C-alpha cells in the first residue's frame, strides 16, 4: 500500500542525499530538544516568584561626605520625608538590598559559636519595624518588630545585640524540619536571637544562591556615611517618585551624593543578564536551525524531483494518480526523517548527558525529545508537501517527449 | 585560469539564482550565528595584557586550618588576609609587587560647578602603575615615603580629570574625597580594558577605578573595603584593628616575576614565609600550600568565560554543521544537474583536475559571499547581545581577528562541503552524456 520497498530501493540508489538529510534531522533534533530544555529551565528560574512586587519597589544609595550633621537624626528626617511623598506607601533604611547580587550571608545555628552544631545558611538584612511593610512581604506567623526591639548602632559607638529576628519560611523549614520554628532561638555567631515572625516567601540578595529564599531580617539600624534606602510606591507611581528622589534628598541636606536609584525589576534583570542572554540566543538558534533544516528538506526534494522528472512522468503515464506521487515523496521523506529522529533522539540524550556535566541541570526529560521529534517530523513533512505537489503536476507526456 | 573559473562561477550563480542564493543564505546564517557566539567568547577569553600576562602572578596562600573546607574551586582563598598582604609587600623579593583593595568615596571640590558624585578607588603601592603598564600623561606615581607615611596623595585617570577639571594638567591640585583632602600627583591614561583581570572578585566586566592611592591609607584612615570580605572561622570584630588582624580575606596581591627562575625563587620564599608564620601560631595545617597564578590562570579560576558561553559556542558549531550538510546537498544537486555540460567539457579535453579545480573555485566564491553576508548577520546578532544588557557593550563586538575569521571560516567550510560534490562531478564519464545529446 505504501510502496515502501520500491521507495527504499530508489533511496539506496542515491544514498548521499538521504544521508545528508538524515544527518541534518538528527543534529537538529539533538540541539533543539536540549536547547528547549535549557530554555524552559531558565524561564522557570527567571519567572519564579521572588515574594516582592518588583515593579512597585526601588532602592537608592546615599553617600554623605558632610560632617556637620548627626547622621542618626538625618536618617530619621530622610525616612519621614520619604514616607510623605505622594505615591509612597512606605520607605525604610535597609542594609542588603534583595535581588541585588550583593549583600551578606552567614550560617545561623542551634548552638552559639564556636560550638559545633547544625547551621543553616541564610542571606540576612538589617531593617526596622518598617522593613516588612516597605518590602511588601506578608507574615504567615508571628508578629512584626516592635519599636523598642530595634537596635541602633549609631554614631555614639554603642553596640548592643538584637534579641529577636524575623525569618523566612524557607529558613525555618530547613532549620526546624519538624515544624513550629516560631518562638525558637537561633544563634548569630555567639548571640542568641528569638524568631518572632515568619515570612511566607521572600528572596535574599542572590537568586543564584543555593538557598535563595533563606532570609533573616535583623532589627538593626546601622547609621553610616553610606546608606541604602528601599521605597515601595503605589502601583504606577514609581517612576514619578523615583524622578524626584534626588532633589528631595538634596533639599534636606546637600553634602551628600544620591546615586543608584534603581527599580527592583532592574536590579533583578541586571543580576540575571547572563541568563536572559542565554535564553535569547538559544531561542534564535532554535528558530534559525529549524528554518535552515526546512530549507534543506525543501531544496533536496526539489532536486530529487527534477532528477526523476522522467520516471514520474512514466508513472503518471502508466496510471498513477497525483495523490500516489505526493504520497511517494511524503513516505520517502517520512522514512528518512524517522531514521534521523531515532538517531537524533539518541544524540539528544548523549548531548544532554554532556550538558548535565556542565550545568547543574537534571537529566533531559523524555517529553522534550518526543515533542521535538514530532515537531521536526511535522516540519519536515510540511517542507516536502509543496515540492511533492509540483511533482504531481508533471505531465505524463514528459515521459514520452524526451525519448 | 583562476579568473576564468571565477567568471564561470559567477555565470553559474546567475543561471540558478534561487538555489545559489539559498546556499549563500544558509552559509551566511551558519557563519553569522557561529561568529556571534564566538565573538563574545573571544572577547571574554582574550588576553587583557598580552605583553605581560605570563609575568604577573596572583599568589594564593592556604591559610585555613586543617579540615576547614572553603567553597572555592580549589578550596583555597581567592584573596589574602591583610597581614599576609602587608608582610609580602614588605618582603625583599620580588622587585615589583603590590597589594590592592577596592574602596570608594564621594568626590567633591571646594568651589566648583561639578556636582558631587561617587567614585570607586583603588588602594595600591607606588609600583602598581609600572606593574600593569599604565601610562602617565602628567606627573608620576607617588614616592616611597608617601607609601610609608600614608600620605594623602592620589593618581587619577584622564576620565576623572576631564570630569573634574575639563582636562589639562592638574597635577598639584587637591580634591576632596569624603571628608579628606587629597593631592593629585599624577594623571594616567584611562585604563582601557574590558576584563578587570586584576580584581575579578566583583564581576569580570567591571570598569577599572578612576582613583589610585597609597595602600597604607587603609589602616591610617580606616577605609572601607568595597570588594568582598570572606571569613572561615568565628572571629569577634569590633574595631577596625580587629579586621586588620583577622584571618578574613579581603586583599588582592600581584607580583611581577619576569622569568621561571624568579617564579621558583618566589615560590621558595612563600614557603619559607608560611613556615615562619606557622611558628607564630598561624597556618595550622599538616601541609603548607601556595599557588602562583598568572593572568590566564586567574581568569580561568574565576570562570571569566562562563559555562553558558562555552555551551553556546559548541551549539553554534553544531548548527554550522547542519548548515554545511544543507549546502552539501544543494551543491550536489546543482553540480549533478550540470553533468551533461561537464561531459562535453571533458570530451573537449578538460582534465579531471581542471574540472575539480573549477568547482572548488565556485564553492569558494559561495563561501566568500556567505562569509561576507555572515558578518552582517553576526553584527545584527551582536547588536542583539548588546541590547540585552549594558554589561555586554564592550564584549559583544568584533575585533579585526574575528572580522577576518568570518570569511575564512565560511570559505573553509564551503570547500569542505564542496569537495565531495566537486569530486563526483569531475568523475563524469563524457561518453554517457555525449550519447544522450
From TrEMBL, chain A:
Chief site of localization: membrane
One GO term describing the cellular component: plasma membrane
Protein localization: Cell membrane
PANTHER family reported for this sequence: ABC TRANSPORTER PERMEASE YTRF, MEMBRANE COMPONENT OF TRANSPORTER-RELATED
Domain MacB-like periplasmic core: 57-247
Transmembrane segments: 277-303, 324-351, 363-386
InterPro entries hit by this protein: ABC3_permease_C, MacB_PCD, Macrolide_Exporter_MacB
Official protein name in the record: ABC transporter permease
Lineage: Bacteria, Pseudomonadati, Pseudomonadota, Gammaproteobacteria, Alteromonadales
ABC3 transporter permease C-terminal domain mapped to chain residues: 284-396
Annotated source species: Pseudoalteromonas xiamenensis
Family note: Belongs to the ABC-4 integral membrane protein family.
GO molecular function term, any single one: transmembrane transporter activity
Keywords (A to Z) from UniProt: Cell membrane, Membrane, Plasmid, Transmembrane, Transmembrane helix
Automatic annotation (TrEMBL), chain B:
Spans through the membrane: 21-44, 311-336, 356-382, 402-426
Gene Ontology MF terms: transmembrane transporter activity
Residue intervals of the ABC3 transporter permease C-terminal domain: 314-430
Signal sequence extent: none
Gene Ontology cellular component list: plasma membrane
Pfam families named among the record's database cross-references: FtsX, MacB_PCD
Primary location recorded for the protein, binned into one broad class: membrane
Domain (MacB-like periplasmic core): residue spans on this chain: 20-222
Keyword Membrane attached: yes
Membrane topology: Multi-pass membrane protein
UniProt keyword annotation of Isomerase present: no
Compartments reported by the entry: Cell membrane
PANTHER family assigned: ABC-TYPE MACROLIDE FAMILY EXPORT SYSTEM PERMEASE COMPONENT 2 (PTHR30572:SF18), MEMBRANE COMPONENT OF TRANSPORTER-RELATED (PTHR30572)
Protein name: ABC transporter permease
Organism: Pseudoalteromonas xiamenensis
Amino acid at each position: 500500500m505504501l510502496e515502501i520497498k520500491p521507495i527504499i530501493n530508489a533511496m539506496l540508489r542515491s544514498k548521499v542525499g538521504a544521508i545528508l538529510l538524515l544527518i541534518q534531522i538528527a543534529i537538529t533534533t539533538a540541539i533543539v530538544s536540549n536547547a528547549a530544555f535549557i530554555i524552559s529551565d531558565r524561564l522557570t528560574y527567571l519567572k519564579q516568584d521572588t515574594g516582592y512586587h518588583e515593579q512597585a519597589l526601588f532602592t537608592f544609595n546615599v553617600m554623605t561626605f558632610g560632617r556637620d550633621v548627626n547622621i542618626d537624626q538625618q536618617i530619621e528626617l530622610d525616612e519621614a520625608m520619604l514616607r510623605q511623598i505622594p505615591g509612597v506607601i512606605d520607605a525604610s533604611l535597609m542594609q542588603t538590598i534583595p535581588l541585588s547580587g550583593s549583600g551578606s550571608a552567614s550560617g545561623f545555628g542551634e548552638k552559639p559559636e564556636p560550638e559545633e552544631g547544625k547551621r543553616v545558611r541564610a542571606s540576612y538584612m538589617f531593617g526596622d519595624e518598617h522593613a516588612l511593610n516597605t518590602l511588601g512581604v506578608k507574615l504567615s506567623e508571628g508578629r512584626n518588630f516592635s519599636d523598642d526591639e530595634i537596635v541602633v548602632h549609631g554614631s555614639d559607638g554603642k553596640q548592643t545585640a538584637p534579641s529577636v529576628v524575623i525569618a523566612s519560611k524557607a529558613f525555618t523549614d530547613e532549620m526546624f524540619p519538624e515544624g513550629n520554628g516560631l518562638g525558637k532561638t537561633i544563634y548569630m555567631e555567639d548571640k542568641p536571637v528569638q524568631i518572632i515572625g515568619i515570612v511566607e516567601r521572600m528572596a535574599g540578595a542572590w537568586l543564584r544562591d543555593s538557598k535563595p529564599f533563606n532570609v533573616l531580617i535583623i532589627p538593626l539600624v546601622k547609621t553610616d556615611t553610606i546608606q541604602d534606602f528601599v521605597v515601595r510606591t503605589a502601583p504606577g507611581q514609581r517612576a514619578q517618585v523615583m524622578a524626584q528622589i534626588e532633589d528631595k534628598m538634596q533639599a534636606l541636606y546637600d553634602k551628600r551624593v544620591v546615586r543608584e536609584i534603581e527599580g527592583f525589576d532592574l536590579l533583578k534583570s541586571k543580576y540575571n543578564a547572563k541568563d536572559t542572554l542565554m535564553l535569547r540566543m538559544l531561542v534564535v538558534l532554535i528558530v534559525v536551525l529549524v528554518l535552515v533544516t526546512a530549507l534543506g528538506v525543501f531544496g533536496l526534494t526539489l532536486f530529487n524531483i527534477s532528477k526523476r522528472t522522467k520516471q514520474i512522468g512514466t508513472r503518471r503515464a502508466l496510471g498513477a494518480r497525483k495523490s500516489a506521487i505526493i504520497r511517494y515523496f511524503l513516505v520517502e521523506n517520512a522514512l528518512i526523517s524517522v531514521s534521523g529522529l531515532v538517531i537524533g533522539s539518541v544524540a539528544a540524550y548523549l548531548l544532554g548527558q554532556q550538558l548535565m556535566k556542565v550545568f547543574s541541570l537534571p537529566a533531559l526529560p523524555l517529553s522534550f525529545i518526543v515533542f521535538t521529534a514530532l515537531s521536526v517530523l511535522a516540519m519536515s513533512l510540511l517542507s516536502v508537501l509543496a515540492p511533492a505537489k509540483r511533482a504531481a503536476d508533471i505531465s505524463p507526456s514528459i515521459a514520452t517527449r524526451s525519448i | 585560469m583562476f579568473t576564468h573559473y571565477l567568471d564561470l562561477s559567477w555565470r553559474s550563480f546567475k543561471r540558478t539564482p534561487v538555489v545559489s542564493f539559498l546556499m549563500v543564505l544558509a552559509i551566511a546564517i551558519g557563519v553569522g550565528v557561529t561568529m556571534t557566539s564566538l565573538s563574545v567568547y573571544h572577547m571574554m577569553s582574550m588576553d587583557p595584557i598580552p605583553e605581560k600576562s605570563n609575568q604577573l602572578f596572583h599568589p594564593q596562600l592556604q591559610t585555613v586550618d586543617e579540615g576547614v573546607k572553603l567553597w572555592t574551586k580549589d578550596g583555597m582563598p581567592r584573596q589574602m588576609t591583610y597581614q599576609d598582604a602587608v608582610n609580602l609587600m614588605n618582603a625583599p623579593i620580588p622587585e615589583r609587587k603590590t597589594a590592592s583593595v577596592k574602596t570608594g568615596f564621594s568626590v567633591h571640590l571646594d568651589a566648583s560647578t561639578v556636582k558631587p558624585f561617587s567614585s570607586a578607588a583603588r588602594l595600591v603601592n607606588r609600583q602598581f602603575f609600572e606593574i600593569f603598564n599604565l601610562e602617565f600623561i602628567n606627573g608620576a606615581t607617588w614616592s616611597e615615603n608617601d607609601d610609608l607615611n600614608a600620605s594623602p596623595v592620589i593618581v587619577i585617570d584622564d576620565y576623572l580629570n576631564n570630569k573634574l577639571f575639563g582636562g589639562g594638567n592638574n597635577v598639584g591640585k587637591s580634591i576632596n574625597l569624603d571628608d579628606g583632602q587629597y593631592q593629585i600627583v599624577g594623571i594616567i591614561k584611562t585604563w582601557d580594558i574590558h576584563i578587570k583581570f586584576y580584581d575579578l572578585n566583583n564581576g569580570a566586566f567591571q570598569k577599572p577605578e578612576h582613583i589610585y592611592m597609597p595602600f597604607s591609607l587603609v589602616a591610617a584612615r580606616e577605609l572601607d573595603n568595597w570588594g568582598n570580605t570572606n571569613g572561615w572561622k568565628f572571629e569577634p570584630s569590633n574595631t577596625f584593628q580587629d579586621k586588620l588582624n583577622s584571618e578574613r580575606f579581603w586583599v588582592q596581591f600581584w607580583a611581577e616575576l619576569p622569568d621561571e627562575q624568579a617564579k621558583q625563587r618566589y615560590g621558595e620564599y612563600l614557603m619559607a614565609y608560611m613556615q615562619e608564620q606557622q611558628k607564630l601560631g598561624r597556618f595550622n595545617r599538616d601541609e603548607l600550600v601556595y599557588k602562583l597564578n598568572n593572568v590566564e590562570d586567574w581568569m580561568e579560576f574565576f570562570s571569566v568565560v562562563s559555562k553558558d558561553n562555552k555551551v553556546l559556542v559548541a551549539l553554534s558549531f553544531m548548527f554550522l554543521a547542519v548548515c554545511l550538510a544543507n549546502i552539501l546537498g544543494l551543491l550536489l544537486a546543482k553540480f549533478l544537474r550540470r553533468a551533461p555540460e561537464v561531459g562535453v567539457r571533458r570530451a573537449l579535453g578538460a582534465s579531471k583536475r581542471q574540472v575539480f579545480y573549477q568547482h572548488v573555485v565556485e564553492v569558494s566564491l559561495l563561501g566568500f559571499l556567505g562569509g561576507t553576508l555572515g558578518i552582517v548577520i553576526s553584527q545584527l546578532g551582536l547588536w542583539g547581545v548588546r541590547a540585552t544588557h549594558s554589561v555586554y557593550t564592550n564584549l559583544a563586538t568584533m575585533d579585526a581577528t574575528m572580522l577576518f575569521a568570518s570569511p575564512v571560516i565560511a570559505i573553509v567550510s564551503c570547500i569542505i562541503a564542496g569537495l565531495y560534490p566537486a569530486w563526483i562531478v569531475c568523475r563524469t564519464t563524457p561518453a554517457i552524456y555525449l550519447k544522450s545529446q
